[in-house]
Amino acid sequence: MALDEKLLKILVCPKCKGELEYQVEGDQEALLCHTCGLRYEVDDGIPIMLIDEAKPL
Question: What pLDDT is stored for residue 1 in this prediction?
Fold first, then answer.
């Protein structure tokens, strides 16, 4: 399930407010912040935008 383009345009990293890259690998989706080096998982089409839940790149 791909994220809506309108949503992708307004989402930013909650830590640094930087741009996010949408990544799809198989059935795994994530939003990547290259500035902070964090990966925010997307679960059933819902981005988990909690800094404490983010994983390092």
Answer: 63
